[in-house]
Amino acid sequence: MAPKIKKKQKKAKKIIVKSKKAYSTAKKTVTKKAKKQNKVKISAKMAGKVTDVKKVKESKPKGLKLVYLFGGKKAEGNGEMKDLLGGKGAGLAEMTNIGIPVPPGFTITTETCNLFYQNRMTPPKELMPQVKKGLAYIEKETGKKFGDVSNPLLLSVRSGSKFSMPGMMDTVLNLGLNDKTLIGLINKTDNERFAYDSYRRFIQMFGNVVLGIDKSEFESILENRKKKQKIKLDTELAVGDLKYIIKKFKAKIKEKTGDEFPQDVNIQLEMARDAVFRSWNNPRAITYRRLNDIPGDLGTAVNIQAMVFGNMGENSATGVGFTRDPSTGQKKFYGEYLTNAQGEDVVAGIRTPKHISSLAKEMPNIYKQLKAITVKLEEHYRDVQDFEFTIQENKLYMLQTRTGKRTTAAAVRIAVDMVKEKLISKKEALLRVKPESLDQLLHPQINPTAVANVIARGLAASPGAASGIAVFSADDAVRFAKAGKKVILVRQETNPDDIHGMNVAEGILTSRGGMTSHAAVVARGMGKCCVAGVENIKVYEVDRKFIAGKHVISEGDIVTLNGSTGEVMLGEVETTEPKLSGGFGTFMSWADEVRKLKVRANADTKKDASLARSFGAEGIGLCRTEHMFFAPDRVPIVQKMILADNELERTEALEQLLPLQKNNFKEIFDAMQGLPVTIRTIDPPLHEFLPDKQEIIKEIEQMRAAGAWEDDIRAKEKILTRIEELEEFNPMMGHRGCRLGITYPEITEMQARAIFSAACETAKNPRKKAPIPEIMIPLVGTVEELKHQKNIIIHVADEVMSHYKTKLKYHIGTMIEIPRGAITADEIAREAEFFSFGTNDLTQMTFGYSRDDAEKFIKVYLDKGILKKDPFISIDTDGVGQLMKIAVDKGRSIRKDIKIGICGEHGGDPDSITFCHQLDIDYVSCSPYRIPVARLAAAHAALGKTEYTQK
Q1: Do residues 254 and 136 make contact, with C-beta atoms less than 8 angstroms apart?
Q2: pLDDT of the residue at 47
Q3: Residues 6 or more apart from 891 whose CB is under 8 A from it?
Q4: Greater pLDDT, 629 or 749
């Protein structure tokens, strides 16, 4: 049998896949000497289905330490060594060092994982001697021996990267059991059921994780046996049932692999270790890293630890918890546990666990000890801890501690509370909340007055409200989301393979699991609404439906979730905008104290302007005047202006638009209460205001067929002719922006008149604050273009102010969105009082990418590493950014006090905001809902935070 297993190991090294999962090519990079050790890193990128990795002949330094011990009195590592030991290994070492009861074990370093990928999926030869020493250490600490038939040592083999990746990589428990050690475990514990249950679990996990057999193969055997015996829970299985299941599991492994289940415990350990290393590049781990911006070259550590058992009876248990509520941030002991269970039972959602408070009644002494330990851990780390524990026959062991994932609402509250408790400083508080995560606080809530048909209730696992069509698989969620549908992912319980579906879903609903289940933890991390553990619904994933009482909800039916109350509702239910708490205001005031960048809003309506002010906007950085033309009652007037045969007709149409646009500007000035408002003159090409050409052709054909009046047909034909005249091969680089204003100066004149009339009327109102209009000319490439438009605006401004007998403070500037504009910014600054970078156009013109078509290849570029980031999301600092720097330097060389901002979509991107801070510009402008994000990102930049990798 051993030769077959070795043959299988060799095969696994080349295939590097479990079932049909594709793993990525490993690319070698050698870093500088880190501390006293050389670190070899592998940059792992997805590159399609790969069946081999070329061996890189890189000499390995002698004496490289690959194994670090923990448990007992003193660990070889500590909590600062996350790069080398991973978060879990560093946490185990640190707990050991501060006197927390931790089962003994050792950590195989992340360096070893990188060497494993470098060497064709083969661990370095230096590893095994160090592993043997580690095993000897565990044997000495426990008094047990690995593979011994009379007193067997059993092990857990767990992953652990620098950054928490819950459930994304693999774990094997109860390793070391075989047909012989099973008997020894029975004799030693005098608990036959426990031993057979542990063996059943081990074979099931090993078969799935190590041998790549789909977990459903084992689950169907288990469920069929429970069904036959008419039992519901795994804990109700008798010894005879477990023996039967084990026999079936072994037969399934033989059927699927052609080999017997391995009985050699050392081979078990080697295969499990390598499986954990391979899981670093499984598809779900790669997806999670991409979603959370975690580098792919870090590798995972492997933690090998003596097993402690929560499934030895009613005096044993296992659980997970947080030192504060990860959903709300409330300072209360929070967690769940199951008696007579192992760790995967809690997070997998197979049984709905008990709240941690029940442990105080069942095992009061253990509860007090656990609470004291977790308080100590939070005070030691000065942050919320996510911990795992096992109770074996009334003895408590801590298996893990790490920084707890939490919702943004909880993160803000915890940060504010910990400052009040003098655990952390304001600076630390600000840096603990990722700017982009503030979007979570802006989730809609169920309108309290809405009529809702509540069909089920579960656990309020992650707050917010979401409506969408019910879908029953992660793949279907992705498919429907790509088609533009909002989806609710419905599962019995989610597992790590569902990560891609969870990412696109509006909300997640599970019939099993608790507040610390996979669905709950991942949903909170993503900011997704989640209702978990709804036990009174039956989910039929294969049939794509779930039943809640008398209601049958099939795929495509709309449901609504309230993640704040745990309610499941039929149909779409009305929601309301969120209200930000006092704690949020306190937190954001700290951000405002330290940031240097001002934050403005992109807003075109009174509603958006008011919303922006409520989120802390310090002005408007972009008001798009053309958006005011798209109102249904204005489109006919705009079309009349476009279809005019001469300036007189065009002016008549513009005069009809003037009072409408003036009123819009007055509303915005009122909302901004004296803050600066940057108004861009018309930017898009005129054809955008005309109907679709094909629709007009079709209408003309229908009119002719119906015998319509010739005058009506000629009117339509005139529109068609004008559409054809305005057609452009590349409209984004065509007749738009200042080019329109130069060709049709009456358009610029009308807009300037509307702006200054509105400003004067507002300024003359004693109850209003005088506005500060900033007129911005778009698409300027030469200073002469700006001069032409500026002269028109100044002439109109003087005329209007004279008419209203009032003086206004105003500014005229330009958008820097054409490379030539950036390069000649010194010339332009002689006329412009301010610059605003239009980074959307500047990016497309610098790269030569059409922003409307680039999505066809951008994803491929990202996957292949040609681009590090989508340049339309984060500023390309090496190209576009350098043009911006040229413009800033040249502009200020001529006009020292020139105001400089950014108003493209990048204005709400944290990495782009950091770059803007480094350029020392004055402000960023973004959509109203991104204003809190921008305020915090600006504070992070001022505090020296330069990247937003997950912590």
Answers
A1: no
A2: 27
A3: 825, 826, 828, 829, 832, 835, 898, 900
A4: 749
Burial of 482 (0-12, 13-18, 19+ CB in 10 A): exposed
Question: How far is it, in rounded angstroms, from Cα 392 to Cα 154?
Answer: 14
Concerning whether 903 is annotated as a catalytic residue, the answer is yes
Which is catalytic among the residues 518, 687, 906, 917? 518
Check if 355 is active-site: no
Q: In the structure encoding, which two tokens stand for residue 647, read together?
A: 């300036």
Q: Is 906 helix (H, G, I), strand (E, B) or coil?
A: helix
Q: Is the dihedral of CA 206, 210, 211, 215 positive or negative?
A: positive
Q: If residue 435 lies in a helix (H) or strand (E), which one and from where to where?
A: none
Q: Could you report the per-residue pLDDT of 157-178, keeping only the tens digit for each?
A: 999 999 888 778 889 999 999 9
DSSP 351: S
Tokens of 94: 């640190």
What is the distance between the alpha carbons of residues 930 and 927, in angstroms, rounded to a whole number?
5
To which residue do tokens 């409408």 refer? 660
What is the distance of C-alpha 645 from the center of its chain? 53
Nearest alpha-carbon partner for 803 in 771, 770, 765, 756: 756
Q: 498: how many CB neighbours lie within 10 A of its CB?
A: 23
Report whether pLDDT(204) > 50.
yes
Q: Identify the residue with better confidence: 241 or 929.
A: 241
**Cα separations (Å) of 384 from 320, 370, 418, 420, 585?**
13, 15, 10, 15, 22
Q: What is the pTM of this model?
A: 0.74
Q: Which of 623, 903, 916, 926 is catalytic?
A: 903
| Main-chain phi, psi angles of 771, to 5 degrees | -75, 165
Which residues, listed in sequence order, are joined to residue 45 by a DSSP beta bridge?
25
Q: Residue 108: phi, psi to the nearest 5?
A: -90, 130
- The DSSP 8-state label assigned to residue 680 in this structure reads E
Strands (E), 65-170: 67-70, 105-108, 145-146, 152-153, 155-161
| pLDDT band per the 50, 70, 90 thresholds, residue 62 | low
d(CA 213, CA 766): 77
* Percent of the chain topping pLDDT 70: 91
| Interatomic CA distance for residues 226 and 276, integer angstroms | 31
Distance CA 543, CA 555 (A): 9
Percent helix, strand and coil across the chain, each to the nearest 5: 45, 20, 35
**What is the model's pLDDT at position 178?**
96
pLDDT of residue 578: 72
Give the mean model confidence (pLDDT) for residues 108-132: 94
Q: What is the DSSP string of 644-664?
A: -SSHHHHHHHHHHHHHHHHHH
pLDDT at 46: 26
Q: How many residues does the chain have?
A: 951
Strand partners, 456: 568
CA dihedral over 208, 212, 216, 218, signed as positive or negative: negative
End-to-end CA distance of the chain: 45
